[in-house]
Amino acid sequence: MSDTPRVAWPEYARELTEPSRAHDRPEALDDLRVLDLSSGNFAALFTSSILAEFGAEVIRVEPPAGDVARLYSPDGVLHRGTGLAYLVEARNKRHITLNLHAEEGRVLLARLARHADIVIESERPGQMDAWSIGYRQLSVLNPRLIYLAVSTYGQFGPRAAAAIPDYDITDQALSGVPYVTGEPEGQGPAESSAPTKQGNWIAWYVGGAFGALSVLAALHWRAASGRGQFIDLSPAEAEMRFSDAGVVWYHAAQRIQERVGGLHIQVFPYTLIKTRDSYSFVAGFSDVNFTGLTNIMGRPELKEGFATTRDRILKARQLHQELEKWSSGLTSEDILTRFQDYMLNKRGPGTVATARLNRPPDTLAESHWWERGVFQKVEDPEYGELLLQAPPWKMSATPPRIKWACRPVGADNELVYLTCLGLGKEHLQALKASGII
Amino acid sequence: MADGSPQSYFDWTAQLFDRSKIFDKPEALRGIRVLELTTLVLGPTTADFLGELGAEVIKVELPPGGDTMRYVTPEATYWQNASLGFFPENHSKYHIGIDLHAEEGKTLFRQLAGRSDIMVENFRAGTLDTWGIGYRRMKEANPRLIYVADSGFGQWGPFSQGRASYDAVAQTVSGMIGITGFPGRPPILCGIFIGDWFGGLMAATAALVALHHRDRTGEGQLIDFAQSEGLIRTLDWTWVRQGLGGRDREPEGNRDRALVPADIFPCRDGYVAVAAARDAEFKGLCAAMGDEALARDPRYATLGARQRPEHMSTLLDRIRGWAGKLARAEVEAAAARHGFAATRVATAKDKHDDDHLRARGSVWEYEDPLYGKMVEQGPAAKLSETPARIKWAAKPVGWHNHDVLTRLLGLSPGRIRALEGNKIIGQWADRPGAKPPAEWDGGARI
Fold it and tell me: Which residue in chain B has the smallest CA separation from A287?
């Protein structure tokens, strides 16, 4: 501490990473070209979104009628012909069409793959290989190619050949996370006392992020070895990797984690409690942090009845009632104010955390996210103004960014086929006439 | 084509990805050193994902208690004096204990950062800057350093100062809990630390992006990653719909308004998820249900028709009735036969016992030198040339002090003893979570 900083840390960090100035800085992945051939798969689409946010040239290859992913939209709503989910994961991508069901289309794909660093696909395992455009064939043409295949059961193993289409809900189910999420049997109506998935497509997003991580690791190794590789990714296994002590607890104690609703078996209090106007999450689970929580509640005597971590976990339901006795008279904002006062003014020991349960509009109303560029209103030349979640990382040297939101089906055919394969307008018209593009 | 191939596709992939050959292959991130100063799950997973891919991870903890996660374990029960909650995010790491409140401890830490490629921390914003071991100080000593600052709310901005965060805070503020669960029921937490795990994965991904930039330019950088912002990113169409129509997104239980049909149904021996969004898959589902006329019913024949809420409800009731009479495996088999998707809602035992997952290394059994046989969730993605792997399980606080300080900083045994004497470096407290199993013989520390 001999050199006391001149500028306070938050100002310094903001100056370095301010996302609104991202466009003044270089892009980390602008030396890469990606072909995303995936079909109706938001894990694959999220992988290519991440690569595109960091500057890779991502070319979406869709069938001539467009990827079915463009139709996956709540209540079937389309905005200028495209579904809402696709509008989120088409960012910075070029869009071409190519019919892989036709031999001529596959020949063109193989030619394009010579110019690519990364190919992403989500066909059923073995389909691309049967078409002679799988990793086995493309890697002969381009040994530096990194090939990412997304599927539920993967490309090998006893169930790999049981090729089912890959969906988020089936991935979530296999991961085991819904089994431990939700209200236990008998806590409410039968229909809702059941394993519960996350409301969003979390397995697809987890799978997509693992896809990007794996591709980047493969790139690092390629820089040294000159060789590409085949990456086999299951979004189900990706989310399974996250399942806490699940498998090791079974190994150690033959115990199976069950659902506990808003409680928690590893830490308590770490829970949602009812407030006058909503719900709040509160945490204070280690001994010292629980002391902090009971101080804020004005109930220091609770420490005696719930003295150890184990007491608090095993008597969670009882402690939860005590918490709600206290919180039911307060608003979520009152609770946050009391926690912040305790923390910032150092009124006692322990680190405690709280948050009001946000509905999405509540999150959108908070200035923090807007200041940090987490949300962005993108003015897209084709789709108008869209509110999008921006790439979440703030980076000093090579920040990610959104350049455009989406492109119509086949909008970049001329540009891409000309720059990659030297195919001019007449050639493209012939291909169009024969249903290839 | 298949006829002309020397080998069937699945024989070829079985060989290419053979689990038993993993240790005969190179590691993608070999030679990359990660210095980790983190606790709980977000920070440790950031480093763990890099470690699985071959990076050498040095985990620095404050002795003698170490990482708080050493005391977070199911029902507060320990196994061989270890926290079961600590294993899943701490593999193949070198554990060292340094007192970073002491000036000499800071100096040691700075020396280690000078020898590292990536540093990961998850303290509240600005804490390490105050301690003189933050990004500002480290980049002076090592301009190639990639510095990953994980947090709840970021390094700057209104919520960043003084506000503590955990996984569930991220679930709460991001809106994720608001769109999860059944309508009219109390809100529920995700059964796992989803915001931490996903955050760690996103942060590790950015670290590799930065490594690519460094490979090209030699320049390191600061990465500010907030786990709440990571979860916001995953809320698919929530925000764009709000922006276009101003409509809030309510919880829907297990059904999916965008992909129809997709839901979770009770069956005879558990629960099963079913999805068939493409029309051809839906036809297959109807055939499996023995009701091919359903696929021609104009209310259901196309995805667009099925997406209408009133049609979705009646259709899901129909599938619920069918699945309820079957066992999980029967629904799965019907899906594989008829080309739609169905999978069981897996329990921990289902995963533990699954031959498929074991053949793939997604359930990973290995022999640890200290804890013996381990069975855990294994690396997710399978890389054919540089497969990810687990080498050993998490170790007690300060387990590798001598190894790391001698190997990287060239400290002599006498110097190390002096540092121990002054409590600058240290090892485990005599307490479950921190210390070795009772049976440990005091011998070799691998």
Answer: B71
Distance CA B27, CA B29 (A): 6
Structural domain contains residue A3: no
Query: What domains, with CATH codes, occur in chain B?
Result: 21-234+378-421 (3.40.50.10540), 262-346 (3.30.1540.10)
Q: What pLDDT digit, counting tens, does each position of B284-340 carry?
A: 999 999 999 999 999 999 999 999 999 999 999 999 999 999 999 999 999 999 999
Whether residue B4 is predicted with pLDDT greater than 70 in this model: the reply is no
Dist CA B271 CA A190 (whole Å): 13
Tokens found for residue A46? 């999220």
Q: Give the position of tokens 């709503």.
A: A77
Mind telling me the catalytic residues of B?
196
In a domain, A135, yes or no: yes
Whether residues A297 and A352 fall in one domain: yes
Number of structural domains chain A divides into: 2
- Check whether residue A237 and residue A283 sit in a common domain: no
What three-state secondary structure class fits B404? helix
Check whether residue A160 and residue A232 sit in a common domain.
yes
Distance (Å) from the C-alpha of residue B262 to the closest C-alpha of chain A?
7
Out of B169, B212, B349, whose CB is closest to A250?
B349
**What pLDDT is stored for residue B7 in this prediction?**
86
Asked whether residue A336 carries a pLDDT value surpassing 80, the answer given is yes
A138: Cα separation from own chain's centroid: 29
**pLDDT at residue B3 greater than cutoff 60:** no
Same domain for A286 and A215? no
Over range B83-110, report the average pLDDT: 98
User: Do A343 and A427 share a domain, yes or no?
Assistant: no
State the complex-level ipTM. 0.98
Integer Cα distance of A192 and A198 in angstroms: 13
Cβ of residue A13 closer than 8 Å to a chain B Cβ: yes
Name, of A382-391, B4-13, B435-444, the range with top average pLDDT.
Answer: A382-391
Most A CBs within 10 A among B130, B146, B257, B259, hence the mutation to make, goes to B259
**In chain B, residues 246-305 whose CB comes closer than 8 Å to chain A:** 248-249, 251-254, 256-259, 262-264, 266, 271-278, 281, 303-304
Q: What is the largest CA-CA distance in chain B?
A: 83
Test the B interface: residue of A140, A153, A169, A177 with most B CBs within 10 Å: A169
Percent of residues, chain A, with pLDDT higher than 70: 99
Segment 15-54 of chain A within 8 Å of chain B by CB:
16-17, 26, 28-29, 31, 40, 42, 50, 54
For the whole model, what pTM was predicted? 0.97
Q: CA–CA separation, B169 vs B166, rounded Å?
A: 5
